[in-house]
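Summary for the steering committee. The consortium agreed at its last meeting that each partner would contribute one worked example illustrating the joint modelling workflow. Our contribution is presented below. We chose a case with several input lines so that the handling of multiple components could be demonstrated. No manual editing was applied between input and output; the record is shown as generated.
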Amino acid sequence: MKKVLWLLLAAVLAVGIAACGDDLEEGDDSGSTSTQSEGEGGAEKPAITVGSANFPENVVLAEIYAGALSAKDFDVSKKLNVGSREALFPAMEQGDITVLPEYSGALLAFVTEAKSDAKEIGEQVEALNAELPAELTLLEPSAAEDKDTITCNKETVDKYGLASIEDLAKVGNEITIGGPPEFAKRAGFGIKALKRVYGAEFKKFQPLDVAGPLTVAALKDNKVQCANLFSTQSAIPANGFVTLEDPKGLVEAEAVVPLISKEAATPEVTETLDAVSAALTTDNLKELVKRVEVDKDDAETVAQDFLSEQGLE
Amino acid sequence: MGETWEWLTSSEQWSGPDGIPARLLEHIWYSALGVFVAALIALPAGLLIGHTGRGSLSANTLSNFSRALPTLGLVILVFRIEPLSIWPVLVALVVIAIPPILLNTEVGIRAIDPTVRDAARGMGMTGWQALWRVEVPLAMPLILAGFRSATGQVIATATIAAFVGLGGLGRFIIDGYSVRDIGEISGGALVVAVLALVAEGGYALLQRSLGPKEGSRRRRVAGPAVHHEEVHA
Amino acid sequence: MNWGWLERNVDTVLEDLREHVEIALVALALGMLIAFPVGLIAYRWRATYAPILAVTQVLYTVPSLALFVLLINFTGLGQTPVIIGLTIYSLVILVRNLVEGLRNVPKEVIDAATAMGYRQTRRLFAVELPIALPTIVAGLRVAAVSNISLVSVGALIGTGGLGQLFIHGFQIDNPIEIWTGIVLTLLLALVFDLVIVAGGRLLTPWTRVVR
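What follows is the complete predicted structure of the assembly.
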């Protein structure tokens, strides 16, 4: 009897230690240590951590980057669905994430606190390269664009005769607007920017999710009249939502562009990701988003299919 | 930790519909409602099962099942029924709160020494009278323990429900997490923790004020079902 | 219901399941590792029982999401805050059941053992703990099932496990994913419960005697 108890205790200890050790070795997801800065830039095949924000399109894009790099025998790990840019950018600065699918306009607004005037993609990239911290850089932007929009449900559009954000500004005090939590705080596309550019103020801001089911449901049920959705989402046409025009150019260009740590941007990595960017268009991006959001296909599978179709494997 | 302090002490957190007081009140309201409605169902059921001794097995199974139920999944599931309405989430809260109240009430009544019941009968009380005048007061500590457990669970589940758009203190955690505002996340978590502790303390005081009901009158019932810290959320 | 999804994503689901089990098990093991000495101390030195219990109960009261989030400040993201949080929660029941189980050993048995020459430590391991085993096992069951259920909450702070199915299923409105997560969680809890019960029975052959 005593023996059995000792054995049990030993087994418990063994399991505990083994499992703990496993967890520690794997390097847990918080990863405050840099993954690639051991090889002082000279590493031919740097270990790459691909990160993504917490919405399906970005996850698919990250999976595409990861797939393309894996196909070239890079050691790729993924940190998907991390959160908003407020979470991702510091992670990139600290080296926890090596490369991230970004959007030129929004990134610029984030980095410059919306003080930059750059409108079209070329200008944006230039401005970004000047403003980004030293350790980060951009690769070639793609032709694919995904813009933040203010989209309203049909009843609101009909009720107030809305066509553009300017019109919205006039009836703002009757409108509840929805968006991700960061919509209220960030300098870029959000409450502050809407006020600054259009003088729009709203009755209420309802924090929802990142253009996800909460936001779509809220718009459908008219719990919010207008919301921050993404231009590539099929939920917009599917629900008869209407995207408001942006005559004052709050959102200009929003090219999908890889943000990468300079150290990892070796010629081979650059070539691989540039090829991906060249293959992406707004139309096929919309298709990718539809597959994930509507067909419920797995992001990794969708990414693999894209890479095969484009001959990038 | 300094950021948490900053967030907690900044004046903007203490006013307006997104401020701590407003969210705190929302949270208390959802929780109280959940426990109250659950009690409406679980108390009578528990009293009946305990008094008549029938249906006890299902109460036990229910409790085990409830302990295993992942509250995040439940909350997301009910959201899909009617997004952004309070009702589905309330239903989830009620579902979470019923088992502890039900089980503890049932066990509390059942654990009473049968001689006490006989004595009550002997004194001329009907079944109902015996129940209300004798059994319930004796079972009170356990019944209260059930409420205590239910309240803790509901407060915790209401926190999680912020993920599907509910208000309350969970908003600070969910919203703060999406922008990695450590001050907001930790501050929100702290306030929730304090709320839960205050509720717990309140119940502890209540139980103490009822006085010890130990002694030969109550049969000791062994097993995990009896104590309040059974299920967490 | 999109059953096809399940077919195509068995790997992801299994991976989430594996991670879920890992977190729950490690937390359970850690809980036992800590509760054992703490419980023995509380048993041996009666004065420490009340404060120990009080501390564990206070910690237990903190809602899970709040506790995990507060732990992030110390451990960073990932599995660790969840593991530590679950361990803390399990202490209440594990310590208490250990102490109560030991306390319920009939005095006559202890006296008989002492009379037979068992000294304190040997007596503890050879006599008292075995008798306390059913109560200890009961506590383990509750802790295990509770762990399984709570790992999912960790998904809100990015931790792996079946909770990821809830989050992802929510994001793309995929009910099959949510149901899969719920059913697997319940099944997992059942399996853990049965395994622990079986283990308990194995270790206490005297309780299986047919009367």
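The longest helix of chain C spans residues 10-44. Chain C is about 80% helix and 0% strand.
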